[in-house]
Design goal:
Immunoglobulin-like, 141 residues, alpha+beta, single chain
């Protein structure tokens, strides 16, 4: 009987594995992903969501808020060409839906969005009372 020391690598190993899995080029994996790369930024006045949605026009992307849930989804007619077939497909436009739970400090009535060069930017302003309370000076006793 042999004893072999086992070390699973922990979180770093998991992150590296996830990185390499995300680079798989299997066409069926890409078609089923429905992933939209996104950034979330915060400054003193608002939060900003940036979504990479190349291949879509602003008319094909819908944004809604229902019960503090922001939903961004595409509605594109994805028909295949009858005159040509793909020999290899590295990317394909695909419909998506992405949801974001809004915090209580966001003013839902003032949300706005801009679309430029395949990047959708959604601006989520903070409520005025939150901005007023942002700086609080505390006296030292």
């Amino acid at each position: 009987m042999n004893l072999v020391r086992f070390h699973n690598g922990g979180l770093n190993r998991y992150l590296v594995d996830q990185l390499f899995r995300s680079m798989e080029t299997n066409d069926s994996r890409q078609e089923s992903c429905g992933c939209v790369p996104s950034n979330v930024l915060e400054n003193e006045k608002d939060y900003r969501l940036e979504l990479s949605v190349p291949g879509f026009s602003k008319e094909e992307v819908k944004i809604s808020v229902h019960k503090n849930m922001l939903t961004i989804k595409s509605e594109k007619n994805l028909e295949e060409s009858e005159n040509a077939k793909y020999l290899r497909r590295g990317f394909a436009p695909q419909n998506f839906e992405k949801n974001f739970q809004l915090s209580k400090d966001i003013d839902g009535d003032k949300i706005s969005a801009h679309f430029n060069n395949g990047i959708l930017e959604v601006i989520l302003p903070k409520k005025e009372e939150v901005l007023e309370k942002a700086t609080l000076e505390i006296a030292i006793q």
